[in-house]
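In keeping with the milestone schedule agreed at the kick-off meeting, the structural modelling team has produced records for the first pair of proteins. Each record is given below as a sequence line and a structure-token line. The laboratory manager (R.T.) confirmed that both were archived under the project's standard naming scheme.
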Amino acid sequence: MEKTLLKSPVATINPPGIEIIDDKTYTSVGSVSFPKRKTEGILAPYVEAYYNADKNILTARAVVYVDVNVSQNETFTCSIFQNCYVDMNGKSQLQFFIAYDMPEKISKDFTIYEIDFHAKQDIFPGNLSDVETIQTFLWDIDPISSRGTETIVRPT
């Protein structure tokens, strides 16, 4: 069976939500290789999230992996979008999208970037203290692929 790839009628598709960080550039913190990798596509980010009750701040740190051949001078530029959804229990939950534009291809060598960001309380209808998990996605705006993970929010 042959794979069918649909083309978007627009050049880019931004993720849902409100942009909270616009085109910030990050510097590499290292690299990693997966010598036997045979598929193209995005590697899921590793994410940790913490809530500071004293300051009412929810902070997330994502480790993302970018194809070493497409990162420029060991830098990675992306935007971050914050979205809210209501879960099956009627509770407001948070999603974050790390949006970038890079070609999809098979890669075995990746540059590693750490991306820190804070949830914006003013665009979240619930209380940050009630958030138990967040979802964080890498979102390629070209718009062929995205990849995400769910993370437990821990107290600091």
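The second protein of the pair:
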Amino acid sequence: MSYSFNDIAYFLEVVRQGHLGRAAESIGVTQPTISKALRRLEEAVGMPLLERSSHGTRLTGNGELFVESARRFHAQHVEMARVATEIRAQHQGLLRIGLTNSAGDTDAVRALADMVCSRPGLRIRLTIGKSDALNDEVEQGALDLAVVPSYPGANFSCTHARIGEDKVQVAARTRHPLFQRATVTLADLSAYPWILASRASAARRLVTEIFEREGVPPPQVALEADYTSGTAMGLLASTDLLALVPGSMLRGWAAQVAPLPVPQLAFQRTLVLLAQPRASWSPLMTTFRDLLLAGRS
């Protein structure tokens, strides 16, 4: 025999209030609605559950037996609804993510692809930007999370979790004249034009500091590009330009672009996940973080 959740809820409210009118007012329905619900419930049970009088209502002997089961039924239904809501929240909703690189072969992109495939109701708002700008957007609440590279000396106002590392090296086309040299110095590099990020970027500042420390003029920048995009790599592969290139990007261009043996310009950058210091982590945010960490292992 099936029972209506609403009928059980109305019955329990009448028991709490001890009066049909007050129960109807508390729930926000009419008194006839309450009366019909009680009548359906008593018909389903086969026995009267309440005694009505001009002073109110009270449980019958059978009602006393029934009310505890009704309370358990109501609590279980409420718990089922709560769990169902949590399950939907894990599969639906909006996730606002910031990335510094739109290249497809990254752990972040693979994590997002996994979430899209497993959660048909998910919506993603993707922002491509520079590390500092993405840090500000996360801090201000415009983004939920951001995946950015962190270079030596970089500082972020957001909390950050390390999710991986990537080796960065100076690179050139495989037929570049510098590959004919037994050794390559910073002075040799300064003779050629470069692809570098804007002056405000951490990578550009780091390169400039390394050249200045060695007493060598800073690189001659022919092309400013904040991201190591496919376009930048194509120009690198077909000219004598030089650039700092992450190892993850070099792998896809191994036949055309290679790292130069310059120890001063070979360093590790850390990939970090930025979040607000006091962020309330949604199930979607937690899943994205866990997928990133799983991809690292």
